Amino acid sequence: MPLSDAFDDSDRHARSAPSSASATPPAPADGGEAASDPSSSAASAAGHVPEHPVVVITGASSGIGHAIALAFARRGACLVLASRSADTLAPVALACRKAGGHAIGVPTDVTDAAAVQSLADKALRHFGRIDVWVNGVGVGAIGRFDEVPVEAHRRVVESNLLGHLHGAHAVLPHFRERGAGRLVNLISVGGWVPAPYAAAYTASKFGLRGLSESLRAEVSDLPHVHICDVAPTFVDSPGLSHGANYTGRRIRPPLPMVDPHRVADAVVALSRALRPRAVTWMGMGALPGRVAHAVAPGTVARWMRCLSDWGLARARPEAESEGNLFSPSLGTAVEGGHRKRRAGTLGLVAALGVAGLAYGWWAGRRRP
């Protein structure tokens, strides 16, 4: 289905959504151009995001992106939801409308810069403005670096780094023109602490962290334009089961894991804060992991390698898979179900993690 057709179909659903006092979008004018909203202009001038913001979310069809969409919908937001598949966007948009928001779906591959620009243009045509842009796409390929196909490495970097760059490039001119806006990048702790057997993922997250810091410097003369990063540890989303796996083993993420709805609430809070944080850390090991790696990077890297090898050695065999790298997954679930299935291992993994971080800190202090 052509992109424009899918968008127009979503438009019709959005226009037929029942209006209410709790969710009033800036409705499109007759010519397809959205009418201006005086209250939103006043809010922007004061540095506040409007009560019913217009929010663009990429990676919205499952996991954290889906949770973010629902969290904004419950506050009556006007949502432009993007992912590669129209089939998975449709039920998410419907759920958001039932939750009290106004939602349209725009099938978009974020590795295509022109498609991302078209996403921004259609959001502006439909709602007249963009208040918040959430770069929520995240994919991965797990395996020994030289055993993962180079095409898989490239796809991870294109999705996680260039996809976010394309989003920023599409929306920042609008933020500059209005003098206000929030760009939220989902980075993860992987942007500070490298993960063995996930080289492309780590490279993309380190690069994304640099992109955010550079953009923050560029817009520092615009007091109401904010670049915000959210950096959780492992999140209980379908991401790992959807990702590429070249290890030949079943991947089980370590506990404790972060509830994706908590991440979504943090993103909504950033959109409402008068002075939002540049970086929001989430998860028990997020900040300690960053500090330990900064103090003793070699020791922490070796410890993480040992933990990864230990986990893979205990894992059951599983066929290799390219996951959702080159074609979209069909699921729309928010949670991955790992916390419920593996609650009994929480104490052991948490103890190992804390012990490793403590040892890394101690070893770093002993270096000459």
Automatic annotation (TrEMBL):
<feature type="transmembrane region" description="Helical">
    <location>
        <begin position="343"/>
        <end position="362"/>
    </location>
</feature>
<keyword id="KW-0472">Membrane</keyword>
<dbReference type="GO" id="GO:0016491">
    <property type="term" value="F:oxidoreductase activity"/>
</dbReference>
<keyword id="KW-0812">Transmembrane</keyword>
<dbReference type="InterPro" id="IPR020904">
    <property type="entry name" value="Sc_DH/Rdtase_CS"/>
</dbReference>
<comment type="similarity">
    <text>Belongs to the short-chain dehydrogenases/reductases (SDR) family.</text>
</comment>
<keyword id="KW-0560">Oxidoreductase</keyword>
<keyword id="KW-1133">Transmembrane helix</keyword>
<dbReference type="InterPro" id="IPR036291">
    <property type="entry name" value="NAD(P)-bd_dom_sf"/>
</dbReference>
<dbReference type="InterPro" id="IPR002347">
    <property type="entry name" value="SDR_fam"/>
</dbReference>
<feature type="region of interest" description="Disordered">
    <location>
        <begin position="1"/>
        <end position="48"/>
    </location>
</feature>
<feature type="compositionally biased region" description="Low complexity">
    <location>
        <begin position="16"/>
        <end position="47"/>
    </location>
</feature>
<dbReference type="GO" id="GO:0016020">
    <property type="term" value="C:membrane"/>
</dbReference>
<dbReference type="Pfam" id="PF00106">
    <property type="entry name" value="adh_short"/>
</dbReference>
<protein>
    <submittedName>
        <fullName>NADP-dependent 3-hydroxy acid dehydrogenase YdfG</fullName>
    </submittedName>
</protein>
